[in-house]
Amino acid sequence: MTNRIVHGGGITAAARQYGGRPEEWLDLSTGINPNPVSLPEIPVSAWHRLPDQHVQERARDAARGYYRSGDMLPLPVPGTQSVIQLLPRLAPGGGVAILSPTYGEYAGTFMLAGMQVRQVSAIAELTTDDRLVVVVNPNNPDGRTLPLEQLQELHDRQREQGGILVVDEAFGDTEPAASLAPFAASMPNLVIFRSFGKFFGLAGLRLGFVIAEAAILSRFEDWLGPWAVSGPALSIAASLMESDTIAIRKRILERHLALEAVLRRSHLDIAGGTALFALVADNRAEGIYTHLCRHRILVRKFDYARNWLRFGLAPDEEADRRLAMALESDDFRSVRPKI
Questions:
Q1: How far apart, in whole angstroms, are the C-alpha atoms of residue 256 and residue 187?
Q2: What is the pTM of this model?
Q3: Which domains does the chain have, with CATH numbers?
Q4: Exposed, middle or buried, 21 (CB in 10 Å: 0-12/13-18/19+)?
Q5: What tens digit of pLDDT does each residue of 82-104 get?
């Protein structure tokens, strides 16, 4: 049995260890929009009835327009984590390669299924034995983004050897020009995962989308079973994806710039990130993490990179000041100095 991966968002556990009530904490440990959008009106029928075909069709059509996937209708799923769990069933045989370091659930899922997994640092390290390749683009946690041309070439290589390319674009909403979705119709061995909750700030909705050819989507549908996504979730997704999202994107970028300003003012080195988080590299990472927890602020640390911390966005200027005060406080001097 593999060790469970520790993710961001563990406020309850942090409060139990360091004190305070969960609602007193400032959670900067996730890559979720800290300002959830206003919920659109949800028809009573969405709560009353199982989601009928026309409800799903509206959400899929809205997603097609939002992701610019052309003739391909994205499939709504109950969070992208649900389909990550299904990937071992989709694997065509042979080995699995994951461009790493990245979201740990990919390697964990394949290993739990008893599959051979290679974690590579560059596409140049891939071999013909790697029949299923996973790329998170933009990457979590360092924000690495591969050019579309490179991903298209990788897909063509996979197709020639009967393999599959999985591209996770969970953090792609603020970088639509970096998405493969508009080209997916001509890439039959491609599977794209998209997250809904991160950009819209509605992670609790547990909703994602898969973009792939119809035969692959049909397999995911069969594996997930009927009514996998709730009617309210489909209704919310359709309304929001049909709306103008420019203001959401603008607010996220404003919050990101504010976060970077606080980190730089505290002389922390920003090693990467996306619009929804910043990655800090610092040899004092463990001490900084503990110091912030004592101030009831949670960030994300990594067991595989002890000098990394990921900072999510604060919701407003008051929270910016709270983070800045913690990083500029007198007791911050007690944090072990850089080596």
A1: 33
A2: 0.95
A3: 11-30+246-329 (3.90.1150.10), 51-241 (3.40.640.10)
A4: exposed
A5: 999 999 999 988 899 999 999 99
